[in-house]
Amino acid sequence: RLHLAVAGPQDAPPVLLLHGWPQHWWSWRHVIGELAGDFRLLCPDLRGLGWSGQPADDDFRKQRLADDAIALLDAVGVERVMLAGHDWGGWAAILAALTAPERFSALLAISIGHPWAPAKVAARHGWLLGYQVPLAAPLVGERLITDGRYPRGMLRNGRRDGARWTPEEEAAYLDVLREPAAAHASSKLYRDFLVHELRPGAYAGQRPQMPAKLLIGSREPFRAFAAGFRGEVEIVEGAGHFLPEEKPQAVAERIRAMCG
Description:
Blueprint: E1 4-7, E2 14-18, H1 29-35, E3 40-44, H2 62-76, E4 81-86, H3 88-99, E5 104-110, H4 119-125, H5 132-136, H6 140-147, H7 149-158, H8 167-177, H9 180-197, E6 212-217, E7 232-236, H10 243-246, H11 248-259
Parallel strand pairs: 2-3, 2-4, 4-5, 5-6, 6-7
Antiparallel strand pairs: 1-3
Helix pairs in contact: 1-11, 2-3, 6-9
């Protein structure tokens, strides 16, 4: 069961927006404000997060997130959409575009690495992924997440536009993460990635079959991993990791342009 937030006219061009961690569909609220007058915006909560249910298979590989996105289009009767994703939602968006290219008119991946990072980049900057290890650890990861301090630190460190999250914004994400199911889903997102998905070269022979762009902030901690993306890479100046909230107008402008 996926929870879905929808905004915009029923007959407007559809856009599918996939959020990242430690967030849920509400991370798109400012982008929705920019686009809802002209587009039908579909904003699901990823499996196990936000208000979506816990999957019976307990599978949180990003390919399953991609499969969920494609199945959602079938469920709501939408044949083809523009696709945008942030953080893990961006990785899932890339995989969805590779899996069912006929369903997506354009791909915008935001603030995420990608399956084609050159080996030299991975070797030089792989240490940056060390933050994932405690999150992925059985039992320990869930305790870190329900405690709240680790994800709060990630929110604060990743935002680099000179502004701060309000207490209400932090609570909107952290309160939901404290639910046992959401904490488990969060830990599994990282564990499944490190154990099952971190396979360099697995997608070497594939590339998006539609216009594709990677949008990343100039102050993004993982900006080095943008190298090698099989599409256009665009840097947003003065922003960190949380572009849909730091620079929603820039994100909305790119979506609008790619829908054109």
